[in-house]
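Worked problem 6 (solution included).
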Amino acid sequence: MLSAAPDLFYIVDVMPGRDYLGEFEHMILLALLRLEDQAYGVTVRREIQARVNREVAIGAVYSTLDRLQSKGYVRSFCGEPTPERGGRSKRFFRVTAKGQAALSRTHRAIERMTQGLDLARSGS
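Solution. The predicted structure is:
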């Protein structure tokens, strides 16, 4: 027997160029740019902790790097195995052109939102 209620469905369309970075994603990408050829999980964590004075779990760094890679914002590659790591390779990361565009888009959005605000006084 057919149901009297019509079937409902949704069409979801994602607008291109509207994907802004979250705060931690933003920090991770900026750390990768700063670290250049030395960007791997541990150095990314240290860079954020040193510059932002924020404790960061290494698991959070790697899960964010994996998410950014799935979005196409970073790519990873394995370095040479090292004796210090028991013969294991480090996984290095680089920001892609798509990641650079996301950084620029997010930075422009933040600039537009803060334009004209006196942030030094607004916190008091």
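Discussion: The chain has a mean pLDDT of 87.
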